[in-house]
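=== RUN LOG ===
request id: a7f3
mode: sequence -> structure
chains: 1
length: 209
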Amino acid sequence: MKYFTRIPFWENKRRRTLLKNFREFVVLYFDNSKAHWMVQHRIENDKAKEVRTEINQILKIIHSIINMANINTMTIHIPSASIGGLVPNIDVILNIFNLQGYQIKDQHILDYIDRAIGVYKTDFTSSIFRTINPFYWLGLILDFIVSLPFILIGKDGFDPKKVEASFLGKLLKFGFYLIGAFASFLTILHFTGYLDSFKKTMSLLIIKR
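=== RESULT ===
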């Protein structure tokens, strides 16, 4: 999934719609369930159980959408002094049904969702300009070409993300970007009618050397 500043306007709109629908599910779930001090999880009525299924089906993609809005959904849970123990990092979105056990209020989930909606809403105008910019699409094509070797590596059983994050992976990626950028530059010159002039200029420079 791409970062929020790298998507066209229709993807921006789609993500906002998913976030708004998810928010409604969350409100509906907590309105139809209640916390009880004697049990770790919330007590759910039939409606809450139904909505829980809907939430689980889109939870992973919603988590990615929020993270791609540059919003960190992790929070630090500090156990009470009487319990003690380690202080774990809790992902509020992924642990939506376990918040009671960490003494985290359900309002925190709505806060993350609202922030994400705000990010995409603010970027919507920019997403329109990106969509009509031909260089934006050239960049996406270049990204795809550069990612192909790592996709092929993943099919051989290696972790493509780890390979891509390694020093050699970054070096190869930089090289692919240079090649791709130069190829895109030549393509633009070809379609604008300046390719022959560019070739002649380069030939003259090489001859003078």
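=== NOTES ===
Residues 167-192 form the longest helix (26 residues).
The first strand starts at residue 33 and ends at 34.
=== END ===
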